[in-house]
TrEMBL record:
Residues 3-121 form the Response regulatory domain. Residues 146-211 form the HTH luxR-type domain. This is DNA-binding response regulator. The modification 4-aspartylphosphate is found at residue 54.
Amino acid sequence: MIRVIVADDQEPVRTGLRLLLESLPDVEVVGEAADGVAAVRLARRERPDVALLDIRMPGLNGIEATSMLAGPTVADPVAVVVITTFDLDEYVHGALRAGAKGFLLKEAGPQLIGEAVRAAANGDALISPQVTARLLGEFSRPVKRVREPATPLTGREEDVLALLAIGLTNIEIGERLFLSLGTVKTHIAGILAKLGLRNRVEAAMWAYESGRVRSED
């Protein structure tokens, strides 16, 4: 069972998310918080598998709470998924930089929320396909000077990275490239190792920042 906490300053939203999550057979909601300070306190006490955090909360916002729970200096991070009302929001980009393993729109249905929670619990990440290209493309322009890996990506790794960056899941990447799920996971692991990145969210941002993928692609 995947243990999840939900943090949002609006009680109806928290209730809706709880009901949605508890409709999934492998998810258990172990606590709720109405602000960022309470969310951090709750996460540290309960040690959930995943913290689902609203981006805009009093006390600490979603970015600050994410940094405290999942930032690069955190010794024992909690997997964070950020959820937002807006499909183009600079705060979401900041949350990804702070260590979030993905983000979703509040209108996402049970299937996508379930996929995101499961991915985060497994150490992977999921970006809502509806907003991936627009969000990452918008905040990655102009193309930055990024560090190229000492060992170049293979052609197949470049193909996988391009599809990952536009929000495709591992299964969809496999179907597009005629690869098994295990092979896709192996390629993603190779990409992350070569780039020195933690997860597919960072890999997607790197793809945009390096100019390999553009928002209009």
